[in-house]
Every structure is written in structure tokens, then in C-alpha cells.
Amino acid sequence: MSKFDFDLFVIGAGSGGVRAARIAAGHGARVGICEASRVGGTCVIRGCVPKKLLSYAAHFSEEFEDAAGFGWEVGEARFSWSRLIENKDREIDRLNKVYLGLLSDSGVVLYDGHGKLLDSHRVQVGDDIISAEKILIATGGRPWKPEIPGVEHSITSDEAFHLEALPGKALVVGGGFIACEFAGIFNGLGSEVVQAYRGDQILRGFDQDVRDTVAAEMKKKGIDIRLGVNVTELTRHADGLITAQLDDGSEIQADTVMFATGRVPNVRGLGLLDAGVHAKPGGMIPVNEYSCTNVPNIFAVGDVTNRVNLTPVALMEGHAFADSEFGGSPRPVNHGFIPSAVFSHPPVATVGFSEKDAKIHYGELDIYKSVFKPMKHTLSGRDEKTMMKLVVQKSSGKVVGLHVVGMDAPEIVQGFAVAIKSGLTKQQFDRTTGIHPTAAEELVTMRVPLQG
Description:
By secondary structure, the protein is an alpha/beta fold. It contains 13 helices and 21 strands. The strands form 5 sheets. Strands 1, 2, 3, 4, 5, 6 and 16 form a 7-stranded mixed beta sheet that branches. The longest helix has 25 residues, at 81-105.
């Protein structure tokens, strides 16, 4: 008889935690899990799922406009923010129940409440003190806002999903995934949008051609992107408007200011010191390739480890942990060539290295790039471009980076990610027959590399 209540106790029932709990239970482990909010985590409850639903909604304004070029006469369109949010909430409730069912059907015991480590084997959840042979931390991340005067008048992505009304004028602060996505959502739904970012171009870390293409297309849609500026102060007025002071001396007025300035590991009140778990400044928990912390029986997966902060990566890490610790098949997590997408307007998808980083890792390169008007817009008349790019190691011919900006980019790149992960060469791409007429065929028909 084990001296512990559980073989595994998981703190945090998001994507990584739920996957680890289910797989471990499937291997025969006795598993408990706790969650301070709703089961499903950031992605399902207040992240990628509701965000993509809102992104779908924001595309309809352009679809109505484009229909005329295809012979349709569309009547007056009216949009209801409250109806969209109501329908979104209904879907999130459904998914929350699905996740609850997944845990219950797997035999995982759920505790409602915040989990706090008391030592290396005990966790307190409310009035309950639970012991476990192994503990997995899967508490994810939380939005970060700068400490400036008036910051309390702003929101983050968490609150954006529950606004009472669509902003008439929105200021989105930041230049990453979330900032670009919400700028596109608000703009598409009818808000006047300013996006302010301290850097020299949005989407830092992405290939430069991706960054430049997305920025240009967002500006065409009417988003006012202001670069090289910081918001230093917010002031709310009696009429509800907010004035944002920028460090270049300018001001922006908006009825909603949203900070999308990054996320930090969610370790507040977790009791890491009491359990002897090391964390770096900012809260990131260092782990080895098997997701083990410095304490041999305590592990961590997902955004709290700040490795690659994507939902599918948390799922992969959680699954690998459970197989390694309870399935008798130890396997490290491979973070190489992970595809990702930005559901901006237009969307972005990428796998592998940017041109800049590939030069560092692979030396001399061949670069293939194509910029073209999508077939749909030959009749719609919309001025929107698609950009596709291949980064190829010259010596081996291996495709080490693939980047797409444009309609259906995430759907296209998911399939090509298999090829990139498998180490296929440009020659093998060239031998693949394209599907005509599609945008994706461009990736197997580019023949001449850029010069110089």
C-alpha cells in the first residue's frame, strides 16, 4: 500500500496538465489534479479557442464586401457583439464540460481550488492536504502589464473576451501574437484601431519578410501601427474615454486600451520555495529534457517552463512526461521544428528557422520567395497579397524554414510541417506535384532562388 494519496498530483488543469493526468491514469497511476479556475486552461477558456472564434467573426465584414465581385448582392449587414460573445461563451461551456468528462472518464480525481506546494510531496488545495509520490506543475502563464500610472484603466486578453460592448476606438499595446490578433479582430468587427509597439517592427522573432508583409497588409485594412513608442501613462476621463500618453510626446484617445505586452509564468502563491523548486527571475521553472525540476519527484510542463509557449507543445510535453514516468517508455521532448500560427488578418504560419537564424545555424542559404495576389481576389478586387518563402541550406538542399502569410496559411503549413520535420530537401519538394489551382502549390513550384 502506497504511503501517498496519489502516484501523481497535477497542479493546473490546462492542456498540458489534463493530458499528463489522463495518460498517466491510462498507464495505471492513481492521479489527482487541481484547478483554481475552469478546467481547460488558457487555450480553451480564455485563449486560442475563443480568440479564433472571434477571428472568424471579424473576417465576415470583408467576405460581405468581396461577394459583389462574384455576383452576389448582399443586403445591409448588422453585427451584434453581445450575440457573438453569448455564442462564444456557449461553446466554451461545452468544451469545459468535455474536459471535465475526459478527467472523470480517465478516473482522475479533480479538486477545485488553488494548489500550493507545502513540501516536495504535499499540496494544499483549500482545506485539503494531498500527498503524492510525484507532482507535476502545469499552471501555465498569465498576462503581464507594465507598472505605469493609470494602468488599472486597461485590460488584457483575459478581459477582452468579456467586454460589454465592442470598442469604438481601441488602442492595442504590443507587437506579438496576441496584439496582432486582437488588432485584427477589433478592426474587422468595426472598431477604429491603433496598435502601438516599442520595437522597429511587429512580430519580433519571425522572419523579416513575414513581419514586413503582415504589417503592410494590416495597414491596408486601416490599422494604425505606430512603432518605436511606449505608453507611459493612462488617464481616464469623466466621459469614459482614456488618454494614453506616449514617450514620443504624442497622445492617443480610446475607449479601450488593451495591453498585449507578453505573458509570464503563473507561479504566484505556488509555494515553490517551500518545496525547494528553483525558479528564475520572472518565474520560469527550469527543467531538463524529461521536464524534471531540480527536485527529483517534481516536474513541470507547458508555459510555466517558458520553453516553447504553445498549446500543442504543452500537450506534447505532458504526454511525454506521463509516458516517461508511468508508461515505462522514457522519451525526451523534441522542441525542434515546431510549427506555429498567428491568426492575424491576414494569418501567418511558419515552421523552422527564419532567414536570419538559419544563416547562423546552417551557413550559406538559398532563399525562394513568392508574393502574389490570391486567386480569390482577382474577382473580389481586394488589394491583399500572399507571401510564401522557403529557406534552404545550400550545401545539403534541406528545407530548414517555411513561411506563409495569407489566406489559409495555418492549414497549409500544418501539412508542410511534416515534411520540414522529416528533413525533406528542396529537390523532394520540386518532385512533388502541386494541386491546381491552389495557393499551396506555390511551395512546390518555386524554382529560382533569390539573387544576392
